[in-house]
């Protein structure tokens, strides 16, 4: 009988997290078998943040309603900015693949530096803000 173990690891490049991708390693009977590794590269090695905290907060409140949760039964849940107007927010600088950015035409494998803005102690709702130009969008969640 084969016992398979899957191990995931958070991916970091230039000491910044890569959002939406984890490295996956598969072991059969304790012996390494396969790895699924992300091969994208950052468009720039600049790891300095260029957005102000007030802009990140403003972007979160403006775009949080785009972080819709789609449920298998019933209507989708749309978060309201009024719910979070007094919330403590957390902003994390990292990378996201360009295919997840609305309006980008770059192919898969191009990492763009963004801020992930969420509420304290939660990963939902999430608003991303491009670091170099302030473009922001809420990330929907699909629950099967």
Brief account:
The protein is mainly beta and 144 residues long.
Can you describe this structure?
The protein has about 140 residues and is mainly beta. The chain has two domains: about 5-40, no CATH class; about 55-140, no CATH class. About 10% of the residues lie in helices and about 40% in strands. The longest helix has 11 residues, at about 55-65. The two termini are about 30 Å apart. About 20% of the residues are buried. The mean pLDDT is about 95.
Mass-distribution shape: globular
Number of strands: 10
Uncertain spans:
none
> Could you give the distance between the termini?
31 Å
Question: Helix amount, in percent?
Answer: 10-25%
SSE string, helix = H, strand = E?
A: EEEEHEHEEEEE
Mean pLDDT: 93
Largest sheet: 5 strands, mixed
Task: Please give the count of helices.
Answer: 2
Integer count of domains: 2
Structural class: mainly beta
Based on CA atoms alone, the radius of gyration comes out at 17 Å
Primary descriptors:
144 residues, 2 domains, mainly beta, three-stranded antiparallel sheet, globular, 2 helices, 10% helix, five-stranded mixed sheet
Outline the secondary-structure elements:
Blueprint: E1 4-13, E2 16-28, E3 31-36, E4 41-42, H1 53-63, E5 69-70, H2 81-84, E6 89-97, E7 110-119, E8 127-130, E9 136-138, E10 141-142
Parallel strand pairs: 4-7, 5-10
Antiparallel strand pairs: 1-2, 2-3, 6-7, 7-8, 8-9
